[in-house]
Design goal:
This protein is an alpha+beta fold. The chain has helices spanning 20-26, 74-86, 135-144, 151-163; strands at 4-8, 14-19, 30-38, 44-49, 60-61, 64-67, 93-98, 107-115, 127-133. The strands form 3 sheets. A 4-stranded mixed sheet has the order 6-3-8-7, with helices on one face. The radius of gyration is 15 Å and the shape is globular. The termini are far apart.
Length: 165
């Protein structure tokens, strides 16, 4: 069964619902969450998306991310995505909301942070690889191979590096 998303206006107000395929094909504004998971050493968990992903396969992205399902709120969605993709639970901290744009794949995006020493258990259907990386090393990798990272992740990390809360 296909996922359904809330369709939103430019102010993140729900104006309807549509199936995932239609939302993506028509570039309708919708909602998503991203989580930056850090270990106690301050390294960021990077996720390499599987080859079966419909958008940005085999690209690196946020530790966990996903769409907000129709009728779901951001906070519920972020907890679900963390559990589904990484097998993690914990107190997430809301950091920032980004308006839907080309850079965020037409998604109103909320960024959260989790710091944990728990063992990550990636879902192999979602995550090909997961690795903790120091932010300076991550920047060097991104400078060498910028096309290996999703545009949304680049936007969020750029904000984080400038305004690190």
């Amino acid at each position: 069964m296909e996922e359904w998303f809330d369709v939103c206006d430019e102010h993140d107000r729900v104006v309807g619902r549509a199936p995932r395929s239609e939302v993506h094909a028509r570039k309708l504004l919708h909602r998503a969450v991203h989580v930056f998971v850090f270990n106690p050493a301050g390294e960021l968990l990077m996720q390499l998306r599987t080859a079966t992903k419909d958008e940005y396969p085999l690209c690196y992205t946020s530790s966990a991310s996903g769409h907000v399902s129709a009728g779901e709120d951001y906070d519920t969605s972020v907890e679900r995505e963390l559990e589904e993709e990484l097998g993690l639970r914990g107190p997430v901290e809301f950091l920032q909301q980004f308006p839907a744009s080309v850079e965020t794949s037409f998604e109103h995006t909320r960024l959260y942070r989790l710091t944990t020493a728990e063992t990550v258990r990636p879902d192999p259907n979602e995550v090909l690889e997961a690795e903790f990386v120091a932010l300076d090393e991550l920047q060097r990798r991104m400078d060498r191979e910028p096309d290996r990272y999703t545009p949304c992740f680049c936007t969020l990390l750029d904000w984080y590096r400038r305004y690190k809360p």
